[in-house]
Amino acid sequence: MKKIFILSFILFLSAGFLQAQDLTLKVNSDKVKMKIGQTVQLEAAVVDASGKTVTDREFIFYSRNSRALSVVDSTGFAKAIKHGDYDVIVISPGDPQLRSNISVSIKPAAISKVAFGEIPNKMYAGVNVPLTIDVMDEAGFERPEVPITLTTSDESKVAIAPFNKLIVKEAGKVTVTASAGGVSQNLDLEILENPIAQIQLTSDMVEGRSGDVFTLTAIAVDKDGNVIKDAPINYSFTGESFDVSAAPSGLITPEGKFVADEPGLYILNATCGPAAASVTVQANNRNITRKINLIGQGSVNNKHTSDLWIWEGVDGKDYAVTGTWGADGTAYFWDVTDPAGIQLVDSVKVDARTVNDVKVSEDGKVAVISREGASNRKNGLVIIDVSNPRDAKIISEFSENLTGGVHNVFIYKNHVYALSAGRKYYSINIEDPKNPKIVGEFELDTPGHAIHDVWVHDGIAYSSNWTDGVQLVDVGNGIAGGTPSNPVQFASYAYPSGSNHAAFPYKDEKTGKFYVILGDEEFPYGLDPSGRKPSRAAGFLHVIDFTDLKNPKEVAWFQVPFAGSHNFWIEDDILYAAFYNGGVRVVDLSGELLGDLNRQGREIAWIVPEDPDGYVPNAPFTWGAQPHKGHIFYSDWNSGLWSAKLEPVVPTNAKIDQAK
Amino acid sequence: MTYNIFRKIGSGISLVVLMTFSFMANAQDYFVYVTAESEDEVALIKFDGKNATIEQTIPVGIWPAEIEGPHGINVSPDGKYWYLSLAHGNPYGTLYKYATATNEVVDTVRLGLFPASLQISKATGLLYCVNFDLHGDMVPSTVSVVDPEEMIEIDRIETGVMPHGSRISANGLYHYSVGMMSGELFEISTTKLKVNRKLNLDGKAEEEPAMGGMDHSKMDHSKMGHSMMTESAPMYHSATKPTWAMPHPTNGKVYVAGNGTNDIVEVDLEKWEVTNRFPAGKAPYNLDVSPDGKYLVATYKGSGETGIWDLKKGKELPRIKNTRMVTHGVTISPDSKYAFVSVEGIGGEPGTVDIIDIKNAKKITSIDMGKQAGGIIFWKME
């Protein structure tokens, strides 16, 4: 009897198991075809081996692209939003849990519109004209994949070239037609006789150096010598490099600015239809490289080092403060009066794991350090009396609205500008450093906004906001009526990579140009899985011309191959940039900036802090650099604080003097 | 005679079987994954019944010079994958999927602000992760629903202010989490992807809303016991400050860590009301219930202790002092023998995992790991 019972029990279990295994999730087997705007009830059912529907099963539907095909969770009610092929995943929870896919194809809407973009007011014979053409459908979507066919009413006057370009040959009336998806649009053109008989081309320099900007002036005149102001001038160049092993290279802009990367002879051309002119210029070797010597080191090899700040103390000596990263919340104070004998003179330890940023007030009396990783998750910042850096004393801790971690801070005129949780920054009055008080804040309202850094100069706060780029905010300059308690944003610039991590303003007194240099932070190579190998960064410095605040323009860049930018400083037309695994790069910023600054030979010197006794040995990862009284100080993630010095510029007639 | 021979053989076999089982019992190894929030690492720790060792340390994230904050961690029901929430981003956090066989990244998906505790429902196969939004404005946040097979976020379900401490019922049908600052317990239907019901743990009527504009600095997330009024904006702040919700596998109760009221709150699921509040240690933070349903283990963040509760008697066993301060997470082995407790430490101290014999309420061993040991989850026994 007992055996029968056990056998029956086993059979029951088997049946149950088989039954569970035989359940199938049935969904729409054929591809579901929909039109935009249409709604469809997607079908799903769980059936047993006999094909009978199991009634107590629930379903979860979701679209792999909910912006194009919306599907309501448990009901399977789908709405087509955008054309394309999509998958809907169907899950039936329970035991067994069942999954299946439904394929949905949403038919594109009919093409509704073909539109030409802006074209020149006057179109002269002999000038090629590129067209921009947008194709839209009835659902309001752009349809760049739809082929466009261009035709012309008179091939002898206007011919069609690949990539939607017009070859304008003769004067007269012509209609160009763009057709896509059964819709056509005409563009009526009146081609004018090209009046330009001559181009008078001059350059502001005949001879310069690589990296110098040659500004061309092209004046188009007719046969009577009248100036044609709206003549569409095209600029180009050819060249010959002085170095037979290097190709001539450079950049010429549509406005007629030319810069040579490679020293050589360059022919700069201006054309307009049949008229052409050229000038020859010579770009000599920039010849600004200087030797850089390592002077000293204050080693930190038991933890990572973060940012640095160098200042002249109230006693006239020179000091540095450095932070630490992923460690025990220590900030170190150094006497750097003798850069060859950097001395650790004090340290302050706070409840944190990372002191990411350190700053000192203009009068050298107060330091502010940021906290991240506090044990009570109240991060904030710490204000320290550094009147005597050999006896640095905590004045106060401040975490109001800053619990999420302060990644970066800046001190400017008795106010601390402190980031909060990577979302915004607060301005905090520290006239009474024992009782800091929030007086203002700045936060963007863009979706998913974030912030990494803020730097204040001349009453303007430059915040680096990743995808939102740099934001120029008046916090006392007066340009936009802002104050620390009422920050007013007045200009901004963002670039596509979205990697804006740091910013530094720079005004070139000679040219009158106002630049803001924006630094990326990128780590596309990720982490070494073993955690023991040196890291490598990417990203570079973007030079933005903010001379016209309403129309900032990216004009130049500085890149170091296989390394990435971090913090940087500009003083006396020289950029001092930490490039993580690329060490410190010293760059000549003099004159107008255009194009690839590194290829132009603007790099004056570089030095890489390699330390066999480093936290990670021989793994340079330079965090920041700051010039101070003729020396360059720089902090390195794996080896602490360093100092270096550029050798003096050798006068160009030094050899002649020596020969004498 | 024949009978005797068979009897002796049988006895011998029994002895061998007994010895084998005995050997197997003694040779049992336990594996847990633990996050080091201030080190951007995950440690895989093995415990052999006496000693613990770090089998592997896995660097996580992609930014060597930024702390990305691994926070929540869990293992798929089949044990093939582990999932990790990285709290910090620009600004959103990320869910990572790793293979347990290699401890290498399989896929990622971006979630909300400060994603934290997470778990896969065995009923739906979907992963539910709270978006803690620890340092954001005092507004309701969400629970992200992710298909871990595709690593697509398929839905966000709004719950309370600072949702945290989530766990799913044994049958996989209900997800429980708490709104730390709104003082609410939320029950989400994992199949309908909707909040079924919510319960204010402070005893307030549900329509009393939490208010915006709160200053987090007035909260002490480790001790959680003082005023939450800002200088500028007085506002509602939960006295209970619940930080974890743990459904019992069988008894129809959910236990909540009353971080602000220093108690364990018992909620009856049928009545949907608080049926008991057990005075506990200082600032209970995370909870786990042994699979046999007998014990509840609570971490006391404020005092650096671990509490073990005999649920049948409703009494706490002698408290266990942890190796260092800021006790954080707990996970219990499937055999209900051991509690693995993560301890954050302070500043430059290492994180630690204490391994506790639950029945005897005794710490067996501990092992140091990366800084700020936090999220912890049991992987396997073998």
Automatic annotation (TrEMBL), chain A:
**Secretion signal, residue range per the UniProt entry:** 1-20
This protein's UniProt keywords: Signal
Record-linked SUPFAM superfamilies: 3-carboxy-cis,cis-mucoante lactonizing enzyme, Invasin/intimin cell-adhesion fragments
* Designated name of the protein: BIG2 domain-containing protein
Organism encoding this protein: Algoriphagus iocasae
UniProtKB/TrEMBL annotation, chain B:
Task: Say yes or no: keyword Lipid metabolism present.
Answer: no
Signal peptide stretch: 1-27
Which top-level group of life is the source organism from?
Bacteria
UniProt entry tagged with the keyword Metal-binding: no
Question: What is an example of a GO molecular function annotated in this UniProt entry?
Answer: DNA binding
Q: Keywords for this entry?
A: DNA-binding, Signal
Q: Could you tell me which InterPro entries the record lists for this protein?
A: Host-pathogen_enzymatic-act (IPR051200), N2O_reductase_N (IPR011045), WD40/YVTN_repeat-like_dom_sf (IPR015943)
Q: Which SUPFAM superfamilies match?
A: Nitrous oxide reductase, N-terminal domain
Q: What is this protein called?
A: DNA-binding beta-propeller fold protein YncE
Species per Swiss-Prot/TrEMBL record = Algoriphagus iocasae
